[in-house]
Design a protein that fits this description.
Keywords: Membrane, Transmembrane, Transmembrane helix. The chain folds into 3 domains: 189 residues, Phosphatase 2c, domain 1 (4-Layer Sandwich), CATH 3.60.40; 88 residues; 252 residues, TolB, C-terminal domain (Neuraminidase, 6 Propeller), CATH 2.120.10. The protein is of the alpha+beta class. The strands form 8 sheets. A 5-stranded antiparallel beta sheet has the order 1-10-9-6-7. Strands 2-3-4-5-8 form a 5-stranded antiparallel beta sheet, with helices on one face. A 5-stranded mixed beta sheet has the order 11-32-31-30-29. The protein is 26% helix and 35% strand.
């Protein structure tokens, strides 16, 4: 490229169902909008971005090559916008797959360069401003408004005008604008010219643009650097001239040798300049990310993603060079920081904590509940309830078939365990093992999908009526049912697998974590999730927990969130895909996982 350039990005929310990434470096342009799917996480998206960018930088710089790269990703269902470009000298090649557009401002005009599925090439001019946008960006800010803002504002003012429009949207995920302005043109400085008298000049060999060695030799023709003298010289002058000539020849030979050595190793001056420029940038980004990992992990992850893309683009140095060794060292540091920023713990060997077959030969488990140190285990298959200490492993059989009947749901509060069967809610006293019916089924019951107890009260989640029934503890037992959710609140609870209570009610509905306080929606928005949550995910928290835990069986993972929504960690274990229930005790620093007859314990980090 014969221009210097300024670049900036405008990116929407990092939370949501879409991911946006953009880059302009080493004369390669890439903008990507990705649809986050259960099988395609944001981390997969970042890896895909790095892969495409690496291909752009290493491929032949031509429109046909660019179109070939673009078309190779045409069948990727997760890609919404893929716009890529190359710049060779003053020629711009640009191509698009999927949605997205490109606008060019030249002088006092703004024109559309590119739209869905198009490609274009042309000559850039000094002062040109290029803005490439994703589909989500265009849906929030129309092209007409984009054109008006670009036309009336400078490079530095454009983001100030566009960002408020983007932020005002309730969901700006996937939105990105990559803005590039091509400023001062420059040319490579020529080698020093040696003036030779007309009688002594010779015609230089023709330049071969494809042969760098011959070009250098033609420019450094030694015969042209030594001039003959038409006048006699003294011995001293002759010796002096010979000495100077010898020094000049040696210096030139050293220069040519060093250039040839660089060529033989595949390292050009341009490549070294690019390395030096970008390696300092990466070091700065890694330092900044390191300082933000605890304060702002989202920003840290963005910096690390940018750093990875840059380092991979520089990786084509020969292995024995200092540059290659430094790149590998930074990649190793980057890997450590990525783990610190994402805190994804990949587990392979989780210890067994308890097996119900120790209490009953054919023991099993279908659901867990916990209160302080006591874990209640419902064995629906054998119509049995077991209890287990979270600290000492002390266990017992608490109740049998005559009490449990066809119960499918269990909860615990204080010294009482509550189960829901087809006829009623029954309680079992932990100390005396005495049982009784506390709430009889009535005609208002629909499809009860979850039970929870808090502050002595009992809550039933009714999937049929999209309502949560609340039974208040009284001196005589429990009150009649009250609707917990206010009349104007009707969430879709049809596929909600469970709920947890810490004073507010937490549940997962259609893959979204929902929080209710005093019967109304309470604002809760997870920040920094590494992917979407499956609709079948289970949730756990209570008034003893500072965190919220989400077991996603589809992904085999447990996500840990602070109660303000900030992402904290992920535990991955393949066996989690088979789990039917889980509970957590932060006091003992354990996540208990139910797998058939066995309960495993993941240590909290």
């Amino acid at each position: 490229m014969i221009f210097t350039a300024k670049t900036t990005k405008i990116i929407g929310s990092v939370e949501g169902k879409y991911l946006s990434l953009g880059s302009f470096e080493n004369d390669s342009i890439l903008l990507l909008e990705i649809r986050i799917l259960e099988e395609f996480t944001p981390l997969d998206g970042q890896n895909l971005f790095t892969e495409i960018l690496s291909k752009l930088k290493s491929s032949e710089k031509s429109l046909s090559s660019l179109k070939k790269i673009i078309s190779s990703y045409g069948d990727r269902k997760e890609i919404i916008t893929l716009t890529a470009g190359m710049i060779v000298d003053d020629i711009l090649y640009l191509a698009n797959s999927g949605e997205g557009t490109a606008l060019l401002k030249r002088n006092n005009r703004v024109v559309k360069l590119l739209d869905k599925g198009e490609n274009v090439s042309g000559v850039l001019k000094q002062g040109d401003l290029l803005m490439i946008t994703s589909d989500s960006f265009n849906k929030i800010i129309s092209k007409d408004i984009q054109k008006e803002i670009i036309l009336q504002n400078s490079f530095s003012q454009i983001p100030e005008k566009l960002e408020p429009l983007l932020i005002s949207s309730p969901d700006s995920s996937g939105s990105i604008a990559l803005i590039i302005q091509f400023t001062q043109a420059y040319s490579q400085a020529p080698l020093p010219e040696v003036i030779i008298p007309p009688t002594q000049r010779t015609n230089p060999p023709p330049r071969n643009r494809t042969n760098l060695k011959e070009t250098i030799l033609s420019r450094l023709n030694l015969a042209n650097l030594i001039e003959k003298d038409d006048y006699p010289a003294s011995d001293t002058e002759v010796k002096s001239k010979k000495t100077l000539a010898t020094i000049a020849i040696i210096l030139i030979l050293l220069l040519v040798a060093s250039i040839f050595l660089s060529i033989s190793k595949g390292v050009s001056k341009e490549k070294l300049d690019n390395y030096n420029k970008n390696i300092d940038l990466v070091s700065h980004k890694l330092d900044e990310a390191d300082s933000l990992i605890d304060l702002n992990p989202l920003r840290a992850r963005t910096l690390l993603s940018d750093s990875r893309a840059i380092l991979i683009s520089l990786e084509d140095f020969p292995d024995d060079t200092d540059e290659s060794k430094n790149i590998q060292k930074l990649l190793s540091r980057l890997k450590d920081q990525e783990f610190a920023a994402t805190k994804v713990y990949k587990l392979t060997d989780v210890p067994l904590y308890f097996d119900t077959t120790l209490l009953r030969k054919d023991g099993s488990g279908s659901s867990l509940a916990i209160y302080e140190d006591t874990i209640a285990i419902l064995d629906s298959k054998n119509k049995v309830i077991y209890t287990l200490s979270a600290s000492s492993k002390q266990s017992q059989i608490l109740a049998g078939a005559s009490i449990v009947k066809d119960a499918k749901l269990i909860t615990i509060h204080g010294d009482q365990i509550y189960i829901l069967n087809s006829e009623s809610v029954a309680s079992i006293d932990l100390t005396s093992k005495a049982s009784k019916v506390v709430i009889k089924k009535d005609d208002s019951w629909g499809q009860v999908g979850a039970i929870a107890a808090f502050a002595g009260n009992i809550y039933l989640l009714d999937k049929g009526s999209d309502q949560i029934g609340k039974y208040i503890r009284t001196d005589e037992g429990f009150s009649q049912k009250y609707n917990y959710l206010t009349e104007d609140i009707r969430p879709d609870l049809e596929n909600t697998p469970n709920m947890s209570i810490d004073g507010s009610i937490w549940l997962v509905s259609k893959g979204e974590i929902t929080k209710f306080t005093q019967g109304r929606f309470d604002n809760f928005k997870p920040q920094g999730l590494l992917g979407n949550i499956s609709a079948s995910a289970l949730i756990f928290t209570n008034d003893e927990s500072k965190k919220v835990y989400v077991l996603d069986p589809n992904k085999g993972s447990i996500i840990v969130l602070a109660k303000d929504g900030n992402y904290e960690a992920t535990y991955e274990w393949p066996q989690l895909k088979k789990s039917t229930s889980f509970v957590v005790t932060e006091k003992e620093k354990k996540i208990f996982i139910l797998l058939g007859s066995k309960i495993y314990a993941i240590e909290l980090k």
